[in-house]
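Researcher: Before we compare anything, I want clean individual predictions. No alignment, no superposition, just each chain on its own. First chain goes here; please echo the sequence and then give the structure tokens.
Model: Echoing the first chain and its structure:
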Amino acid sequence: MAARSRTLPASLLPSWGGARLALTAFFAVDGLLFAAWVVRIPDIRNQVGASHGALGLALLCVSAGAVATMPVVGRLCLRYGSRPVTVASLALLAVAVPLPAHTHSVPALGGVLLLFGAGYGGANVAMNSAAVEIVSELGRPVMPSFHAGYSLGGLLGAGAGGLLAGTLTAAQWLAIAGLLGLAVTAFAGAALLRSPAARPVGAPSSSTSAAPSSSTSPSGGTAAGAGRLLVLLLGLTALCTAYGEGAVADWTTVHLTDDVHAGAQVAAAGYVAYALAMTTGRIGGTWLSVRLGQHRVMLLGGFTAAAGMLLAALAPLVPLALAGFVLVGLGLANLFPLAIARAGAAGGPRGVALASTLGYGGMLIGPPVIGFLADATSLPLALTTVAGAATVAALLPLAVRRH
């Protein structure tokens, strides 16, 4: 009977399918806009005349804007709902994407990347909160499919950006990407806001409201403490994963251009290979989680990403480096979405906000660490730290399993 009570009425299934499709479109355009910026980082770097360390500081502003915005967006989602905040955040991101191409100094670049980061971080908290609610309403483990949309958008953005690198300037390409982002936001936003509202995960039910004393009981306090610890461990897993994702996104094209001596289009192909592998891994994420279990998927994924990053960073030939980025994409594919989904199930919207903030904190420390280590040693050696972070992400699920 319990399982039947969670089944949606047949009349609502088409509406929820529309909501899922619209939210997937938001994930996709988020990935597309981010990738559109990533593949033109070398051009922007040359435009502002930045060293590795200066570029790392500028890229830090993306993560700083995101992490500073995430707790605020979490509260806005609780007050106004995650869907309106999703629409507003994606609109801000689309407006901010063209701005880096119009800067001519590192401080100016850092300033516009703060705005870019605010839109990007806000969108990711709001979208993941909305996704957790839809997963709860559908009663199916479909969170990886939303993140597959993000990876597919990244693949399209990187592929188109690479193919057009010799035809369009950075300013022209980023302007087109921003306009496309605004168009998708308008159409998908209208569909998402028209769909039936979801009860926020973690909202009190009638049974829990009828027994408020349970939250103050010793066992209730122990359960709450265990839940917070679980969310923290999942957030650390997301942090290590986002460190790797941010490093690959920000430094892949630079590494292939400077260290492996690839051309602009081939360098963009490195991110395309990574994004394609991640998309494939996430499309199969639900099936893998059912077949192997979430813990095994996370454990194997972390070790695969670590091996792939060592190959991508240290291989002297372009084909080997591209193969390494494929392994990184496959390995990291499901770590972040599974960590966020489990944090949402354990802690509701606050769990999503905390795990997302910790997760994207990995992007806060990743770019400057890579940049400073590259100046002190070399970029390939700096990128090997991603392998260490992936190994930690592989081992943390063992601690999570105990809780």
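Researcher: Okay. Second chain, same rules.
Model: Second chain and its structure:
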Amino acid sequence: MFAADDEGGRAIPLGVRTDTTRFEARAVLLPRSILLLYTDGLVERRRRSLDEGIGQAADLVGEGRDVALADLAGRLMTGLAPAAGFEDDVALLLYRRPGPLDLEYSADLDHLAPARRALRGWLEQCALGPEQAQDILVAAGEALANAIEHGHRDSPGGLVRLRATASVDRVEVTVADTGTWKPPRPSSGSLRGRGLALMRALLEEVSVDPGPTGTTVRLRTRIVHDEPAHP
């Protein structure tokens, strides 16, 4: 699940001996990979190798690498639970690199450039190809501009939220406003009003969900990569 320089950080459990020197080791968490931290109660069973339990946990993480982390945590608890239930306390922590990008700001065009910069930096952490990253950035920029310029045309000062998440094979960007939906009406000979068509030309899935409290635009696309990403 990650690449480690060595295993020099291994030691006996905390609290067993207070006079034991603790060593450190460094590991590199690869883009779009998942880190699982857990207590031994999750994988340790009587009359079963500890390696077997660890391997089972790793397999479940690999199988669920595309699902939300909250759902993956549930799968781990269900898939690793003994028939009679856990005999020990269990705690686990899941982290996917990079973590979600979550921004909220007032509907002002001055915030468009900072939002795009933040999204560009986040996409770089995902280790996407430059062409695909640019497609996502352009599509998201259109959604942000529409939310500010059209969604809040009658209610300046409302809020716009940008959220981006990545799994091993997919990126999703959500742009939500608190304004009102304005159907696109492209005018003849003009490029205005064609933002939605541009988004759909650049990405695999684009959905628009207008409602009484605002509009949510969801942009999804499968990641194109030459080498398989690490689960």
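Researcher: What stands out in the second chain?
Model: Residues 130-151 form the longest helix (22 residues). Additionally, Residues 85 and 193 are 57 Å apart (CA to CA).
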